[in-house]
Amino acid sequence: MHTHRQDRAVPLKSIRFGLVPQALLAPLHLPSAPLHQDAPQDEYSAAPQYPPILDTSPVSKRRRKQEEWHQKSKVELMGSMWVFLGHSTVQKGFGIRRGSNSGHRERQSEMLTTPLPPPQRVTTCHQTPHRGAEDDGAQHASLLRALVLPPPDDRPTLLGTPFAQFATRTHLQRELPEGYYGEVWQEAEAAADRVAGQVEQLISLNYNTQLSRCVVGGVVDLKPRIEAYWILGSLPPDNLLKKTRRGLPWTKLMEDDPMERPIQGYSTPTLGLRVCEGLPEVVGRGEGLAAAGEVPGNDLDPRSFMFKFKHRHATTVTGSWPSEGKQYGHLFLHTLDHEGRHADFYGSHNLPDALVHKAVVACFTQAHAHASYLGFGPVTELTYPLVQQSAFTDGRRWNTAIYQLNTCALHSEKPVDNPHNNILWLSEEEELFEGVDGDGVKGLNTSLLTSLLAMYLKKGIPNPDPTPYLALKHVANHPAPFEYREDFHKAYLRLSSNRPKHRLKPELYLWEKIYKVDFKTRPYDAPRRFFEPHYAQKDPGQERLDEHHTPYIPKSLRLESEKKVRYKPRINTEHLYKYD
Amino acid sequence: MGLCQAQLITNTLTRPALPQAVTDHAAAAAAANTSPDLDERVKEAILHAHLLDSYQRRLPRVLDVVNNQAGSSRWTTASRKTLNYQLLLLLDQVEGCGLERQLVEDSSTTLMLPHGNRLMQMRHDAGYLLSSPDPLPPMATQGEVLAASEGEDMPDLYPLSPFSNCRARDTYPTEECYAVDSPHLYPHTIFMHHNQPRMPHTEDVFKGMSLLYAFSHAAAYAKLVQKHSLGDLDKPITVQVVHINGPQYHLGVFQLNTLNLAPSAADKPVRNLFWTQEWETLFDSCKFKAGRGVLEGYNPKVFSLLRGLHAQG
């Protein structure tokens, strides 16, 4: 039995050899309660609740890490779609070195450090870069720097339409949905009667039709710049990737697994009309065509369809920077300028197919860009459908289209295994008039005029929660310091412009490949290049945009209290209230 | 070239303010405008055109030693014609008389006219040309025109000639055209988008340009569409001009009374008339501050003047 002897010190004289008193072995202070503690009662339950059994294979582990990042990208914690856009796109780059601001460096007087505000309860924004399925040294694996660019939407390619449909998961319907304009049809007919005369005048003067002047309450953009990027999975792996996978023991077994690539899409409408409320859905997001529409499959590399790799920042722009107000794209007018070039290259018999290609790419890009502004995006799936209208015309021939975006996250296996698909309703070609001669316009097609007016007059429906994943609607509302918001905003605009960089991309010269990589015959060269292992080696593809030197503050512009602060402190992008 | 030079080239007399009809309507519109909604919509249009339009391009390198505008970024969203278009839409909705007018973008007008013993050619591209099925009423009656022509003197640039900075060419294209080739439409308003990031000109030069553009369009219409001979016009042609550079708006009304640009002192000279005022600033600054667009110093007078111009005819 073990007794407590803590209060009685044993004199040294009484220690005999070989016999150590119990008191000397026991600790001096023992707790009076037993060593284990009972858990709080609410943690006990009748049936044992085991944590989920996780698959410990490398593929599953990687998948779980990706899912975690996707959840973080849901922007509830990121605060605003600005931050989301910024943090998803500013992760990688070749860095912004000091002095390389395109020759534009502001005076430091406006940017001196101010005393830090008291720490507030702030939501953190993680900048973990999204890793693709292959990120082990493949030269163009840097996610957002190496984009697969489709040809711009005004250059459709031959036989590229099925791939365009696969890449955007779009089902094509060859006529407009019935009854979608039912409630505005009478209004449109009345308007058509009123404007028919002016339309005839317009046509006879060979103008672009100015129907937009009839719409009240919308904002008209002339030639808006619309770009969107998304990550396309289920692509067959290319040879370079296969070679990389063969070379590493933990990726050998997944040599033939599908890969995913980021894709940057463009849309070049001549006119865009934006309103306050989005259009109502044509079909429910989980039923009918939206769930069971046919989408072509794909076995080929995108480069077979004239897609090109290019290093550029991924950009998402809807024709205007994010702001409150009228943001839902209502109608986009496109011209048929691509026809001349396409007919020269591929023949005029391919023009109808070219129109479908252009329509699919342009409509998806427009809708996806707007979905990104609403907080959804390449990794965050929509919670409600987005509908937009488009028209493709050369003044006389018109094709109208309605596009319903049901799914915008197309990474991993989603292009193939997805409960939703997007739908494009594209009407047959119709002529607005037959011809113009000395007497005026011949054969004005009033039914087409009515349907065009119905497209303008179609009203949107209010959405009580259009941005479920955005906590703050605007970066200006974010509680970060003013200085950070200002810098972030400028950096975002600078990145979106995709202006040329001062530094060239790191390049492995052919002589280096021969003498330093394949046949290492230069032992006296110090290994300092990016592909050679050394103490400061950094993979250029993993370089982050916040890894840069901050500007120098001249002595005359430093604060009195901070004469020793030579460089502008850099705000830690993860913890916005700390400085590095 | 300055206003005096343009006056001598176009045989024009100037007035220091816009015509009464325009200013009256502008004042009435401003007084009756109790809806702040309209101002908000104009501000929204300004913010959109100057800040929120995501068009980004590299501006040309302009070395302006005089004004020393070094240091500003060359990558900006230059305000294109978007603002003007938005304002035109608003004007149509507010004034309600514009539904029959036609708008042409990027029109080009070329005209050749004799000036004394010289032949002069003008080639002017307007950003927007608004044409109307009804002509603008003349702002000054025949009597007023004759009185002004006799009573007032033209500016004197002696020893300079008004053509001192014009280039003489031996070979030139002889095609002439007016932008809108239709006998049913009369010119109403010309919108010129200067849109230079750094304005190298003075206000006087700005005004001179407005006068030249107004003259070339009115004269081209008279000569090419109405097929008028080179002399005094029976019915004067009135044209309005709005010259824009960023926030600066210069408004003018031009009345073409004669195509005889260098009448000799013996004849009773008939002059053209140009009503104009100093340029007005629509806003002081429109910038991003920590991600939010901020518009400062909005001047509602400009929009009411535009309404005054739009309501004519």
Q: Could you give the distance between the termini of chain A?
A: 58 Å
Gyration radius of chain A, rounded: 31 Å
**What's the quaternary structure here?**
heterodimer
Number of strands of chain A: 15
The low-pLDDT segments of chain B are none
The gross shape of chain A turns out to be globular
Overall mean pLDDT score of chain A? 76
- Which outline of chain B best applies? globular
Would you tell me the structural class of the helices and strands of chain B? alpha+beta
Structural class estimated from helices and strands of chain A: alpha+beta
Please give the count of helices of chain A: 12
**Number of separate strands of chain B:** 12
For the largest beta-sheet of chain A, the strand count, sense and barrel status come to: 8 strands, mixed
Strand content of chain A: 5-15%
Mean pLDDT of chain B: 83
- Helical content band of chain A: 10-25%
Order of helices and strands of chain B, N to C?
Answer: HEHHEEHEEHEHEEEEEEH
Organism (chain B): Chionoecetes opilio (Atlantic snow crab)
Pfam families (chain B): PDCD9
Main location (chain B): mitochondrion
Family (chain B): Belongs to the mitochondrion-specific ribosomal protein mL37 family.
Write a structural description:
Chain A has helices at residues 22-25, 58-72, 81-89, 161-168, 185-204, 239-247, 289-292, 338-346, 351-373, 446-457, 482-496, 510-518, and strands at residues 146-149, 170-173, 219-222, 226-235, 259-267, 271-275, 308-311, 317-318, 328-335, 386-393, 397-405, 422-426, 430-431, 435-437, 440-442. With 580 residues, chain A is α+β, with helices and mostly antiparallel strands. In chain A, strands 2, 3, 6, 9, 10, 11, 12 and 13 form an eight-stranded mixed sheet that branches. Chain A has a three-stranded antiparallel sheet with strand order 5-4-8, with helices on one face. In chain A, helix 4 packs parallel to helix 9 and helix 5 (185-204) packs across helix 10. The two termini of chain A are 58 Å apart. Mean pLDDT of chain A is 76; it is low at 1-7, 75-145 and 206-215. With 313 residues, chain B is of the alpha+beta class. Helices cover 31% and strands 28% of the residues of chain B. Chain B has seven helices and twelve strands. Chain B has helices at 3-10, 20-32, 36-52, 82-95, 142-151, 203-225, 300-310, and strands at 12-15, 57-58, 75-76, 102-115, 118-132, 186-193, 232-245, 248-258, 272-276, 280-281, 285-289, 292-296. In chain B, strands 1, 4, 5, 6, 7, 8, 9 and 10 form an eight-stranded mixed sheet that branches. Chain B has a two-stranded antiparallel sheet with strand order 2-3. The model of chain B has no long low-confidence stretch (mean pLDDT 83). Chains A and B meet through helix 5, strand 3, strand 8 and helix 11 of A and helix 3, helix 4 and strand 4 of B.
